[in-house]
Amino acid sequence: MEVEKINQVIEKLLVYGEVNNLLGKWDRIAARNQIRDILKINESPAEAVKAEDYEVPEAPQALLDQLLDFAAAKNLINNNITERDLLDTRIMGALMPRQSEVAARFHKTAEEIGIKKATDEYYNLAQASNYIRQNRVARDLNWKAESDYGQIEITINLSKPEKDPEEIAKAREEEQSNYPKCYLCLENVGFSGSLNHPARQNHRVIPLKLQNEDWFLQYSPYVYYNEHCIVFHKKHIPMQIDKNTFAVLLDFIDQLPHYFIGSNADLPLVGGSILNHDHYQGGRHIFPMEEAEAEEFYQHPTFPDVEISRIKWPMSVIRLKADVREDIINLAVKILDNWRQYSDPELDILAFSQVGGRQKAHNTITPIARKKDGSYELDLVLRNNRKSEVYPDGIFHPHQKLHHIKKENIGLIEVMGRAILPGRLKNELNLISNYLSGQIGIDELKEVDGLEKHLQWVSELKRKHGINLTKEEAEKVIEVEIAGKFSQVLEDAGVYKNNSIGYKGFKRFLAAVGIEKAEL
C-alpha cells in the first residue's frame, strides 16, 4: 500500500479522534507524529483532512485495518490477530487523553450536569477508543425467550477471537510476567501488552471513593449487556464477601443510582473467573431476576422497616428492601453470617468439610444491589460449592446432563438470568435446526464432530416438534428450548429446589436467622 494513501488514512483517523472527543484541535500534530513513528513512516504527511469534508465512521476499525495491513506488509508485525490487536491498540493510544484528564472531565460533568451524563460520555469514550471493540461485540448472538420464571436472556459469545495454533504456541514460549498482576489491576492503564496480555494504551478508568477506599470504575471490553461496568479495588487483594461488601455496594448506587452493582461469590466454582482481585460488576440493564415476582413476604423483629421476600426464581434468593441503608446492611450481614455456618444435611447443604485435616468453607452469597423508587434493594443469592461422588463437578452446579449447553461456573451475570454460552454452539445449533427443518438427516448429524453430546437432546426435540418445521420455526424452537435448558442450569445451582421439600428447607434457614412469615 502506498505511503501517500496511508498518510491519508492517518489524517482520517485523527479527524475521527477529534469528532469523538479523544483529542483536541491542538493535539493533532503530536498524535500524527506518534502514529507515524509507530508505523516507521518518514515521508511527508498528507494534507490535513477537515471533518466537514469527510464522512466520519461510527467506529475506527476500518481505518485501523488499513494501517495494520500496511504494517504487516512492512513486516512490522506478524499478520495474526494477537499482533494486530497489540498494534491497533497502540495506535489508538496515540489519540487518547491522559488518565487525569478523563477522570477530571467525568467528575466535572457529574457535578455540573449529572452522573448519567458523565457515564454516557465515559461509555462513549470506551467505545470510540476501540477499548470496547464494537465490531466484535456485534458478532454475539443475543435473544430472549420465555421460561417458567419469565423471560431468560441468552448470549452466545462470539466476540472473543479464535487464535491460530501458531499464535498459541508463541504465547506459551514468551517469558511470563507478573506485571500487571491480573487483567483488573490499575497498572493496566496504558499498558503495552504482550502475546499473553492484551494491550491497554486506550484504557482509562474513573477513580471512586467507596467506604473511604480507592476503587476504580471501568467498562468491560466484552459488554455482555448495556454499559457493563467493572468496579475494582486499587489494591490486588482477594475477593471477600462481608459487611464492607454490602456497604461498598450501597455507596456505589448512592453515587450512581441509575446503575445496579453486584459481586460474584468469593469461593471457587460458584464465583467468577477472577477471585484474586476484589471487584464488582454493574451497569445499566434490567435483568430477568430483577423483574421476578415475590412469592412470599417475611419480617424480622429487629428490622421491622426492611421488607423481606422470597422471589420466584430458579436459584434461592432473599430480597431485602428498605429506605435506611444501615438496616439493610445489618440484616444482610446477619443473613450472611448465619448462612456461612448453616448446614442442612437432608438437602446436601454442609457449611464445612474436612480436607487434609483442615476445615473447608462451602457457603457464601452472591449479592446484587440497586435503587428502586428511591429505596435500596438488595438480593442475596445463597450459594454452596460442595462436590460429591454423585456430582463431582459440584452439587449446586450445572449437572452432567446439561453440560452440552453449559458446564462453566454460574457467576453473577448467569445468576441474574443471562446465559453466557460458548461460541461453539452457533454452528452446532444451526446444524440441529437444519435437522429439525428436514434439510439434513440424523446420519449426517451424527458424523459431525462435537455433535454427539447433543444427540439425546436432538432426539427429545424430534419427539416434541418433529422434523418438518420451516427453518425459521426450527430456530425459534431452539431459542425457547435453550432458555428452558438454562433455567434447568440455574435450578441445579439453586441450593433450595422449587418444590415442597425445598420450600420447607428454605423456611428452616430463614427461621434460623429469626425471619418469619409476614402478617399482611
TrEMBL record:
<dbReference type="GO" id="GO:0008108">
    <property type="term" value="F:UDP-glucose:hexose-1-phosphate uridylyltransferase activity"/>
</dbReference>
<dbReference type="GO" id="GO:0006012">
    <property type="term" value="P:galactose metabolic process"/>
</dbReference>
<feature type="domain" description="Galactose-1-phosphate uridyl transferase N-terminal">
    <location>
        <begin position="60"/>
        <end position="238"/>
    </location>
</feature>
<keyword id="KW-0548">Nucleotidyltransferase</keyword>
<keyword id="KW-0299">Galactose metabolism</keyword>
<keyword id="KW-0808">Transferase</keyword>
<keyword id="KW-0963">Cytoplasm</keyword>
<dbReference type="GO" id="GO:0005737">
    <property type="term" value="C:cytoplasm"/>
</dbReference>
<feature type="domain" description="Galactose-1-phosphate uridyl transferase C-terminal">
    <location>
        <begin position="254"/>
        <end position="430"/>
    </location>
</feature>
<dbReference type="InterPro" id="IPR005849">
    <property type="entry name" value="GalP_Utransf_N"/>
</dbReference>
<dbReference type="Pfam" id="PF01087">
    <property type="entry name" value="GalP_UDP_transf"/>
</dbReference>
<dbReference type="InterPro" id="IPR000766">
    <property type="entry name" value="GalP_uridyl_Trfase_II"/>
</dbReference>
<comment type="pathway">
    <text>Carbohydrate metabolism; galactose metabolism.</text>
</comment>
<protein>
    <recommendedName>
        <fullName>Galactose-1-phosphate uridylyltransferase</fullName>
        <ecNumber>2.7.7.12</ecNumber>
    </recommendedName>
</protein>
<comment type="similarity">
    <text>Belongs to the galactose-1-phosphate uridylyltransferase type 2 family.</text>
</comment>
<dbReference type="InterPro" id="IPR005850">
    <property type="entry name" value="GalP_Utransf_C"/>
</dbReference>
<keyword id="KW-0119">Carbohydrate metabolism</keyword>
<dbReference type="Pfam" id="PF02744">
    <property type="entry name" value="GalP_UDP_tr_C"/>
</dbReference>
